## 1
Amino acid sequence: MNTAAIEAEVDHVPQTASIEELEFEPRHHYLNNGYGWKSWLFTVDHKRIAILYMVSITIFFFLGGLAALMMRLNLMTPYSQFIKPETYNRMFTMHGIVMVFFFLVPSIPATLGNFVLPMMLGAKDLAFPKINLLSWYLYIIGGIIALYALTMGGVDTGWTFYEPYSSMYSNGYVVLAILGIFLAGFSSILTGLNFIVTTHKMRAPGLTWFRMPIFVWSMYATSVIQVLGTPVLAITLVLVAAERILHVGIFDPKLGGDPILFQHMFWFYSHPAVYIMVLPGMAVISELVTCFARKPIFGYKMVCFSSIAIAVISFLVWGHHLFTSGQSPYAGILFSALSFCVAIPSAIKVFNWTATLYKGSIRLDAPMLYTLGFIGLFVVGGLTGVYLAAIAIDVHLTDTYFVIAHFHYIMVGASVSAFLGGIHYWWPKMTGKLYPEAWARVAAMLLFIGFNLTFFPQFILGYQGMPRRYAMYAPEFQTLNIFSTAGATILALGYLLPFFYLLWSLKKGKPAGPNPWGATGLEWQTTSPPPTFNFDVVPIVRVGPYAYNPAADELEDKRIEFEEAKKKYEENRDRLEAEAEGHNGNGNGNGYGNGNGGENDHSDRAGFHKG
Amino acid sequence: MNVIAESNSLTLDKSPVHAGETDPPIDDSGHLLLHHHFDDMSQQRECNTLMMWCFLVTEIMMFGGLFCAYAVYRWSYPHAFAIGSHHIKWFMGSVNTGVLLVSSLTMAMAVHSAALRNKKRLVMYLAATLVLGWCFIGVKGVEWTQDYYEGLAPGVNWNYYDTTVHPDHAKDVAELAKEGVSPNAVKMFMIFYFFMTGLHGFHMLVGIILVTILLIMAIKGRFTEGNDQPVEISGLYWHLIDIIWIFLFPLLYLVSGIKGSGPLW
């Protein structure tokens, strides 16, 4: 082991292979390692599974978005003229269930996490590749069952399945929807288990805990929540299903049950689940902010520990969903205080990202625009969360649009910004192609503007007393609702745009090269797209993450400038020499020129075309 | 260790694992032991063990939710829970406790035999574990059937306190009235009884399938030729089910003392 490690160090060639090298022989990577459907559906490669997840999650995202669009259209007028109120109930339930369980919870961990985490650790794969694939299948089967339930008749309970309505009175496929969520929950547990074991046991030589990128820390914290929380949700939902099927009283007060107990058990998972949705966003942002500010993250250890602190505290705050449900007021006070506490690690993160920006040499590429958007939206969402944690204010704002706006700022504004930012950031690594930067910046701006236009009015609506989950409302709320719907259209555009230009870039995008951002993570040390086992040489880690150096960047820019000038000069010289020699010198074959030429050649080999 | 050669194998287009000086770890019959993405056997072993322990944590959280709900209703309806626990068959529960404890012993012995590469004993102990597992399920089945015919199965056949169906239960109805307990509260206990033992029984079945697979592979000699870890981590799972039963047994069967001997609290 040691001798090998030393040898590797001695033979350490720069792994950032230049584009010219790649051109000469068609390189094996994970995308051209098999083309049939079997090579995808039976793959155990974490990168391919990440792509599978990404495709399926995108489908669910657009389905959930469609339901949201129906709701917003219906809310243009106060009288529910677009769809029937019963349909409206089914729409917001579908929106909630699809977006929470089938989009947000797996979004970043199962796609970006799956793809990047093993590479960040310098591992060949996750610790359990087959279990990773199993988790995708569970997710897909659960998703299909839930979609069937939600579309063929629908569920009208809302994603929270509050008792006793869900078990005794609701008219819809509640049990089927629960089964779907149950399976998706197991998929989420398996992903979490895999990440925990991989982080503990599969780190590259030299990669100590405090040399790991923040991404890994946050993903680890997320996994802990998934592993500890999801089983409780699973058993709670099974109890609801049992109550519904057998008509026995577990939570139904008419039969001696306690509906508040259901709320306790449900939120014991579902509040931490909010952090399952936002911690991965924070993970992505920590990578992006350092790369595009060209600085190490401010207060590395504090950011690491803040992730863990959020994971721990998240399990102690669920009672703030029950302030008005008849929970003991003393419990309420305690939960209120604990909920304030979770603001501390969250604030640490925000302050540290901001401090990282300070005096950085900031590049406003699309991922950075998403990052800045994330920070802004997260601050608004987080601070309104502190309002809601205050009991007196919560009594006024419970079940109003203020709550809707608050958690959409966190879960949509922040998390989806981070997700899209991460997709853009790692897109060159995943596909080997650059996305069109100008379009991406437009999309990032559209998302930020559209999002605020959609959800800021809802803060005001909620404060004025408009309740959530009603198909109709008092006419005086109409103006702001129209604003919100208009914003939703812009937001939809901001989501659709990346979908199209990213697909376009698969065919037409410029080849990315191994490290287009000049980023420091281990995942950038290998080629793009990465080989099946991620690294040609097992990386050895000698320094902590984020060893960015603006002075070195400047030198590098100068070097590239110089190289280009030199190349131009040589080309000109060769051309002039060739012209001077007339047409005699054809047979001399100058290999250098051949190597550089042919843009077409290049894109053919590095891209998706079968070699 | 052939880290470099191994990881280079893909680009150099050599056969994947066999490049390099050291042979990959194989067992006595030539089965490849090391999965492609691990560096060495110790890493693989540690990953497997950690995975199982973490999985057991999720199991504990899952049962934890149930225990929590049980505790809440036990607190709300202590008398009803006492009456309910008198309805279920403490004798069969005790027998099953014994069966499970012995099965844990045989499982532990199986793990030990696998480590010692003693195939004969491994097969014997695994078979004993399997038999004891089925014993547990059998006793449980008899018990549930009896409960069913007594009208103690909520949602399926609940008429224990209906004297038109069970005229001989008039004494129990009188006892309820005396204690001021609603039949619904006793029903609540029975729901928890069926749900908790049912979930536990489901885990037992999974364990039995697991042990069956282990047994078949053990007969083929797979665990006594250099790789005994599957026995070890399956053993962890088996012991967890056992431990969960150790909590279920007093909570359900002994919570009010054995009938006739007076309450234990």
Note: Strands of chain B lie at 152-153, 157-158.
## 2
Amino acid sequence: MIYMNLDHLAIDEILLKRRSLRRQLSAEEGLQPVRIAVLGGSTTNEIVDLLELFLLASGFQPAFHQSEYGRFYEDAVLDPSDLIAFAPDIVYIHTSFLNVQSVPPVHCSEADFQGYVEAELGRYKQIWQSVEEHVPAQIIQNNFELPPFAFLGNLDAVSSGGASRFFLALNAEFARAAATDPRLTLQDVHRLSAQIGLAQWFDWDRYFGYKILTTSEGSVLLARSLASIVRAIYGKSRKVLVLDLDNTLWGGVIGDDGVDNIQIGRETPVAEAYTAFQEYCLSLRNRGVLLAVCSKNNEDVAKQGFEHPDSVLKLEHISCFKANWEPKHENILAIAKELNLGVDSFVFVDDNPAERSIVESQIGGIAVPDVGNEVTRYAAIIEAGRYFEPVSMSEEDLARAALYQNNAARASSEAKFANYGEYLDSLEMSAEIERFKPLYLERIAQLTNKSNQFNLTTRRYTLAEMEAISRDAQYIGLYGKLSDRFGDNGLISIVLGRREGDLLHIDLWLMSCRVLKRDMELAMLDVLVSEAREIGIRTLQGQYLPTKKNGMVEDHYEKLGFDLVSLDPESKISVWTLDVSGYIPRTQHIKILEPVHG
Amino acid sequence: MDSNILLEELQSIFRDILDQPDLVLTRGSNANNVEDWDSLAHINLVTAIEKRYKIKFALGELQELKDVGDMIDLIQVKLAAK
């Protein structure tokens, strides 16, 4: 797959060449289909046009449905038949201050103010609810930019009759709604518009001429931000920031200047700027982005930089450290292997354009923003790429950085045991393997969308689909959580069986790669067999659908003792069965916890 | 600016926006005889021309244009007034 990096193109270039860019990007194979309905309060063609481009560049093949002009409310609430017929995966509700009906009049009293906010919020709640009832889709709703005119001047933000104050209050309500509804994702247009400024955001010529409210720059920002949300919904946000050291994390060359002379700390403006960038990286790390180091240095010298008393980043924050004289792209591939993550989840930051260029050309899918060589600009440029967009902050995300560190500790303890079984025993693993629970459905849907390697069928499910499945008696949905003496790995495996008479089709079997080679698949099978027997199943039938990424599970069913039923010589799709009558539980190294009821 | 040069430059912009590398633009070209010159393409063309020549078309000016020839004349007037 050729990744065309639209980030390197100027906005004017994108606007000018978008049709040929779209033609080239559409020709890629293996794009992931996604259906997006756009319910708009103004003309949405331009946003859709640009969104299509950014999604194609992210590996999606989008199909769009747009509401009739301005009919976002009607098409969602009163007549959702077109929406239902389109069967969207995502519904984007794009509205602006112009679509708000109950702006308080200038004489509005303090007592009445909240009523106006509630009235408008109520209208949107109707929209969200109706969409949620009618289609199993994720909703993206933008909040509001500030209105273009502040009729009350500064008082507009103060008075109960001020539109500025009203929209800020409405935005706060939208945020509250999105925080409590996992199917509602907020697009922060308030921030986007502030980023380029309202004067560059609204374009009244275009509005009166074509009913497009924003400048083309504004539309590009909207589309880019939407694309990053879609990537996040499908688990395609990036996860790892790979950092160079000299003149990236500190000023100077540590090998030449010595640890005492690198620029870091508070003593000089340059040192302060590097400290600020380290703080930015640490903030990313604290919200779950993994940090890795890739530097041309001697390892011991490079590590001294992190022992500098003023270094904000410490070695413990770095999940993988490569400092040597090998080519950087080789080191990055090694980092990917060690962290068990694809390079398409990596962002590489280096002040040296030659290094950036070789890494970008040698590693397909890695993001290499053109950060230049001014440390004061690094963070803003990384930010503009929207690489690490999270769709929600789960405890999983926050714990992930710590988890990967534990993994590194496990890898080092692995060496000391006589055999692998002994090592597994030493991990003191225990697993909770049970039927799907409402509490975990969000994580379950998320996992189906982001697991690519240990995934037998790579079937994607939305939260709504998983909710339906969890209520359907024809399905056995099992989740698995695994803990060990280093910590809780969280919910890391899913098996979904579908009953057909006394046969159970295994529609889905996936596992997070952070628990590979832990015998977790045996534990899952044990529980699956026991659950299946209870409802009179005689045979399990599994399927392997090969993709570019799931080669590691080609022999999954064979290893578990299933019999090969068929193997298509063309597609390499294989079908396997297991007779459960004589099945004896096989888990040896994991303690399966008794289900807790009530 | 010479109107032939302008026509040539517009042709290059049209070729990019419409993704038609062989498009030949004449003064008589209009939305009816140029393939894919739809309303969204029109917006893109206008935006690209405004950016390229650092001019701004007034609301209503565009509605009166029949073809590329009219557009060239209007651009020339705008450029002369700068």
Note: Chain B has three helices and no strands.
